Amino acid sequence: MSAEPYLPKRKTLNTLNQAVQDCKGCSLWQHATQAVLGEGTTKAQLMFVGEQPGDQEDQQGRPFVGPAGRLLDKALEEAGIDRQAVYVTNAVKHFKFTPQGKRRIHKKPNAEEVRACHPWLEAEIAVVKPKIVAAMGATAAQALLGPKFKVTKDRGTFVGSDPMITATVHPSSILRAPDEDARHEQMTAFVDDLRLIAKRLAS
Ligand code: URA
Ligand code: SF4
Predict the structure, then answer these.
(1) Confidence (pTM)
(2) Does the CB atom of residue 3 touch ligand 2 within 6 A?
């Protein structure tokens, strides 16, 4: 199971975007509306990696346009990071879900699916060449930093160079906070992580 055979020889954001629509590197293409690659310019110095497209992303074909995306936008603004200067993508490019009546409930991609889809993320990193890649949540952290990296313990640390890799929480986890106080606290911590990233970018 791998996306590798579906990658174009000549890699640009355009050729990747076209080719990813035909990917059958794992079974997730079967029920999704379309593949969702990342979005942003090749000039971006900062790349954010989420888990997988959600319901709205699957329908619109763009990453982080639903509730989690709005929270990310707000946090970026609070941290003084220009969303236009950022490339956003996901560890897995097709939406995985279980139908529940008319709704589609997000289902976490498993390790094989994350591994199968990794060539797309690698290609995006190779084309965009960001200075920093920030994994958001456990799935992205696992894809980029391996299973030993624990977001709760290791968030805010930077690993390697070219690109430097760091991790923080997923914005959806903040949306799931049990009450307003917890939500506020988690948002503050998320924005603090983003500020650290902004500082590294500037250094
Ligand atoms: N959650 C993600 O991980 N990615 C998206 O694009 C949207 C929600
Ligand atoms: Fe290919 Fe990734 Fe979609 Fe699986 S999830 S079919 S590997 S693009």
Answers:
(1) 0.97
(2) yes
